Amino acid sequence: MAREARPPDLQQAVALYRQQRPHEAERLLAQILQRHPKNVDALHLLGIVAQETGRADRAVALLRKAVALAPRAAPLHDSLAAALTVLGRHNEALAHWDKATEADPQFADAHVNRGTLLNKIGRPEQAVAAYDKALAIDPHFAEAHFNRAVALGRLRQYEEALKSCDRAIVAMPNFPEVHFTRGTILAELKRTDAAIDSFKRTLALQPDRAEAYYNIGTFYLGTGRLQAAVDSLARATELEPDYADAWHNRGIALQDLGQYEEAIVCQEKALALRPDFDFLLGDMLQLRLNICDWAGLEESIERLKQQTARGEKALSPFAALLSVDDPEIQRKAAELYAAARCPADVGVVPFGPTRRSDKIRIGYFSADLREHPVAYLTAGLFEHHDRSRFDIVAFAFGPDTKDAMTDRIARACDEYVDVRGMSDAAVARLAREKAIDIAIDLGGFTRYARPGIFAQRAAPVQASYLGYLGTMGVPYMDYILADPIAIPEVARQGFAEKIVHLPCFQSNTIDLPVSDTSISRAEVGLPDTGFVFCSYNNNFKILPWMFQAWLRILAATPGSVLWIYIASAAAVRNIRAAAAEQGLGADRIIFAERVPRPDYMARLRLADLFLDTAPYNAGTTASDALWMGLPVLTLAGTTFAGRMGASLLTAIGMPEAIAATLDEYEATAIALAHDPDRLAALKTKLAANRSTTRLFDTRQGARDIEAAYAAMIERLWAGLPPDHLVVAVA
Fold it and tell me: pTM for the whole thing?
């Protein structure tokens, strides 16, 4: 006689489940429930199996049966809440976690699970409270510490989040996610080196984590370690070929290294992966301008203008300055960019009109207080500020170059604060603690700039000056410093800021070193005879229609050459090809490479006439030329960037070198090349005016800017809003 089969045992089902044999466990559990339909443990495990095999609806049905049979069983409520979470039924899930913790107040897992859902649905404050309850039960609960760190990060309580991460690491040092999260928190705190170390620890545990390579590369990029950035970002794209952000930042690093063609390849890849990548079309326009690749450029610019007018995030603000002679489009591009990248923090506590010190405290914020054109212009300003009326504090960020210009500016300020390792919010808080009255942004939307500091309101008065020649399109910048030529009254509508008219907007430092070594034309590749037209502007400022004008000037001036700065071999090829199309020989264009600034300044003496670019004029480069006695011919446009040359020439008393039209520009250049006496008279006038006019009067320039600062702060103290201001000519 056959022996009767033994009934299935729940322990067997549990063993099968733990062996990751869910379907076998499920069959066994079904047999148990056929015999014992009210077996709560079988219902519970079967519900868990159903959820883990993608059948959350069935899981909920099974777990509800179990809960009905044992309503005070905390683990059942916990499992049911988890299944409801999968179905997106969050309120029901929270209710069951509440029941779980009511049934068993010491159920730490339920508190953590509840906190995780609260964090997921955007209630991080309540999530932290839930994690705190779990940690009160079990202070060493690693998962609670980790999830608490995540929630605190969302609340921007980064210091406390870091502490929670560190506690989690003590309990589970080999969990890569906690090291990764620690890295992101340190990133927010601007502790770059520590963040990189955390991401490297992540990679030691999880070598194929593309996002960790991406973050490391992005930090290297932000601090100027460009080749290391390229290498790390390349690894990210190898691991994850569809990683659009990694391709994008890899392109930026290559661009900063001057490897423009490789950068274009990366950006094209990013755009192919994400066709609506914010502002990338504008960035790619600038990239192409860097190598003088003008194929289809006019059509691209027109398309970008139309997209910007429609409110699309296509044209990056700096690219708009380079390519569009239209203040309204430039303003729209800035507004779109600022809204996406650095909106005003509405939670910032406003300042009152209270006078806080006998002296006005000025904070200059810049990534360029180093060997950089902004520093060349402002070093003298810092040195000539009236310390009886003003305290000067520099807030420095950007690449840590530790060069002579950094040292000079640090010495020139009452206080020099390195804030590279601080978040935007922390820098703004520091400025408030230091009672800065007027915060001056020297960067705008340029490389390494940090407009987010101003979005946090670093000072009761905030103004844009010198480094970015356009509106920032934001409500938190009160003023922009310019002059009546750079921004005429009729152009005010192109600016979100109130305009401060100085007699001359550009500050200058006149004692920068110039090489005293005698340099011959032959040494720099110039012919021994013939007229030398010069344009040392960055390649991205050369637009094809301006280059065509230069070629016409050369054609009308036999024996002349065009001496231009070229940053890459690709630009050389494209420039030569464009000249050859017009029948101009290669010997008519001479390419200058980058040399130390003292040598560059001395070389300017070898040229006869500096040809300015448009719609973005020369700034520091034009002042360099004028200081070295080289006349500048400019074409005045309608934007701040396009009227900079006119501003400088007006300030030095040479309006005859300002052309109103392209035809006038060409005619003037040709006439000066054919009339040595007229050119000599222009140079004589320049030599005389250099020491008698405002452009290079650094001391008077400082007084003018101080008068502007005093007018701004007096309005504040009087309880008046910002308004357009004019500094009278002293």
Answer: 0.89
